[in-house]
Write a structure and sequence with these properties.
By secondary structure, the protein is mainly alpha-helical. It has five helices and four strands.
Length: 131
């Protein structure tokens, strides 16, 4: 998986790393249980500080996307569980996107079609369990 980081972006680098890894899991570029590079290796590959990668890995672990242990390092969680907190976050972000698309003149069916198309592109999207 190739990570594309925009050093000029207003989005913090650790958030970009986090988002790229989540997209990689969703697209099937990273399989459930697959190992991830060490913090030091990913930092070197991307050209960022190891603390930045550590912050991204910590966020991913907290959200349940990865597991980290001393023997095996970081790996994609074998099963991703959706919490009630995640559902609230999702609803908030979707509400904002719906408002913005409506203000830009997008029709409901066009919005739903775009969502469906993007969802279908996430071929590797694992089945998640809602807690």
């Amino acid at each position: 998986m190739i990570l594309e980081i925009d050093m000029a972006s207003e989005t913090p680098i650790y958030v970009q790393l986090r988002n790229q890894i989540v997209l990689g899991i969703g697209r099937g570029e990273l399989q459930l249980g697959e190992g991830l590079p060490t913090v030091r290796q990913l930092a070197q590959d991307v050209g960022v500080n190891a603390m930045t990668v550590n912050k991204a890995y910590t966020a991913l672990k907290k959200e349940g996307y990865i597991e980290i242990d001393r023997r095996h390092g970081a790996r994609v969680s074998p099963s991703v569980r959706l919490s009630g907190e995640f559902r609230e976050k999702l609803e908030g972000e979707l509400a904002l996107l719906i408002a913005e698309s409506g203000l830009a003149g997008m029709e409901k069916q066009d919005f739903l079609s775009l969502c469906g198309s993007l969802f279908d592109q996430m071929g590797g999207l694992p089945t998640a369990v809602l807690e």
